[in-house]
Specification:
The chain has about 160 residues and is of the alpha+beta class. The chain has a domain of about 90 residues: 2-Layer Sandwich (Double Stranded RNA Binding Domain), CATH 3.30.160. Strands 1-2-3-4-5-6 form a six-stranded mixed sheet, with helices on one face. A two-stranded antiparallel ribbon has the order 7-8. The longest helix is centred in the middle third of the chain and has 16 residues.
């Protein structure tokens, strides 16, 4: 048992790729992030807990003991780390949902965006039903109906 009351198995340090070491001390560990992990205390060094369920999502503990949920990803060739919130105010499930949204946003970066639909209709311009009365008021009939040359805008002489 560790000094802060949480059981730490000896297998955690033996799993390949589950722990990173720096200067003889562990600096990160892969676990299923939940409220129990967020309540653990690490003082004196920076530490990262990475989620096993969602790659890139983690909990960062600063040397001062302050914690924050974050998501790390590569966007346009650069590593980015976005802070999502702090454990007392934000639960792990909410932080995981925000991380999924941020990763989806990064994955769709560079793709064309879907056109926005306005309240009036697609495209946001005038609809045909709004334009038709104005068209008929501006145009007059000359000659036989049914031919495209019969519609001549009013005010233009022959």
């Amino acid at each position: 048992m560790s000094t802060n009351g949480h059981v730490v198995t000896s297998e955690a340090g033996r799993k390949p790729g589950s722990t990173r070491w720096r200067g003889g001390k562990s600096t990160s560990e892969k676990v299923r992030l939940n409220g129990n992990i967020a309540r653990r205390k690490v003082v004196g060094q920076q530490f990262f807990w990475w989620d096993t369920e969602l790659p890139g999502f983690g909990l960062r503990v600063f040397a001062s003991g302050a914690k924050c949920w974050f998501v790390q990803f590569r966007q346009r060739g650069k590593q980015k780390r976005v802070t999502l919130g702090r454990p007392p105010e934000m639960r792990a499930e909410k932080a995981r949902a925000l991380a999924r949204a941020q990763l989806a946003k990064a994955a769709l970066d560079g793709l064309p965006a879907a056109p926005k639909v306005s309240a009036k209709g697609k495209g946001g311009g005038m609809l045909f039903c709004d334009y038709a009365p104005r068209f008929w008021d501006d145009c007059g009939f000359r000659g036989d109906a049914g031919h495209h040359s019969d519609l001549i805008p009013a005010g233009i002489p022959n």
